[in-house]
Specification:
It holds the Pfam family Nitroreductase. This protein is an alpha+beta fold. It has a single domain, classed as NADH Oxidase (3-Layer(aba) Sandwich), CATH 3.40.109. A four-stranded antiparallel β-sheet has the order 1-2-4-3, sandwiched between helices. Helix 4 crosses helix 8. The longest helix is centred in the middle third of the chain and has 24 residues. The termini are far apart. Bound molecules: flavin mononucleotide.
Length: 287
């Protein structure tokens, strides 16, 4: 693997302080209440994350993809089962067909590489078959959960690696809008399902992405026991912080409205309410 770094828009400047990054992540008022160590390189990249949906046409090198996959494989894996795989899609037509299946999101076509991350029990099924075994444990909800957890950890490691190389990424859950057609398109055997995609490319500095604020920490981090009483006040404060972000991006709708549009009705699942049926069709009986 040769050195593959590109100084691009999403890479935090080495001088960026924790205070500046936290101010962008939480809004200045909340960030002022937080203290922490000055970030090293990894933490700076984590705090500087933003999804990138605008890419230059410049290709992503094979070496960069090798590094992303190596970082993904370096993530922890439940019982070291390594129940995931990734399909590296570069072909323009192939990418375009996948984009169509995944909500017709144009940035998938624009990104030079589209990685499709898979929960994969087919490899272990082959191993079991070779030894005259079944793979009965894989048929249970627990194994599916374990597979989705593992592939999520792996892909986020890969995404962070990409960001550290100056690349930009965005996850694509919409790849689950049409699971069976995606499986056909990728030639997936039974017991393999696409969990999400990851568009990867060089960020276009003409269309930069910004750090998106998150909920105040006291909504998500609970001392000793879960607290329900902090939730609605924290959401109220977040509406103000993220409202300013959305407004500056020219985006309508508040966070509350977005949450309710996404989860308030089944229609917000955009066809993914069939997930159990799709998983069963693809060899995950979910017992
Ligand atoms: C599993 C997963 C699926 C996602 N799917 C999509 C998607 O289909 N389209 C999209 O534009 N963004 C998608 N995103 C990106 C989120 O919208 C984004 O992470 C979130 O708004 C926070 O913004 P940030 O990543 O810039 O901080 C997805 C993110 C995750 C983690």
């Amino acid at each position: 693997m040769t050195a593959v770094h590109d100084t691009a828009a999403s890479t935090p400047a080495p001088t960026t302080s924790a205070a500046d990054l936290l101010a962008e992540r939480y809004g200045a008022a909340h960030a002022a209440e937080l203290s922490g160590p000055e970030p090293g390189e990894v933490l700076r990249h984590q705090l500087a994350h933003r999804s990138v949906r605008a890419f230059r046409s410049e290709p992503v090198s094979e070496d960069a993809v090798t590094a992303i996959v190596a970082a993904a494989q370096s993530a922890p894996s439940s019982s070291n089962l390594q129940t995931w795989s990734v399909v590296v899609v570069r072909d323009r037509e192939h990418k375009s067909r996948l984009a169509t299946l995944a909500g017709d999101q144009e940035f998938i076509r624009e990104a030079p590489v589209f990685l499709v991350w898979l929960v994969d029990f087919a490899r272990l099924d082959q191993l079991a078959g070779q030894h005259g075994h079944g793979l009965d444990g894989a048929d249970y909800v627990e194994s599916a959960v374990q597979g989705f957890v593992d592939v999520g950890l792996a892909a986020q490691n890969g995404s962070l690696a990409a960001e550290s190389l100056g690349l930009g990424t965005v996850f694509v859950g919409a790849i689950r809008n049409n699971p069976e057609q995606v499986a056909d398109e990728l030639g997936l055997p039974p017991r393999v399902v696409a969990a999400f995609g990851l568009a990867v490319g060089h960020p276009d500095p003409e269309r930069p992405a910004r750090i998106k604020p998150r909920l105040p920490q006291d909504a998500v981090a609970h001392p000793e026991r879960y607290r329900s009483d902090t939730q609605l006040p924290a959401i109220g404060e977040y509406e103000t912080t993220i409202g300013a972000f959305y407004e500056s991006e020219g985006l309508a709708h508040s966070w509350k409205e977005r949450v309710l549009a996404r989860l308030g009705t089944v229609a917000g699942l955009k066809g993914r309410d069939r997930a159990r049926e799709s998983l069963r069709n693809l060899g995950f009986p979910l017992r």
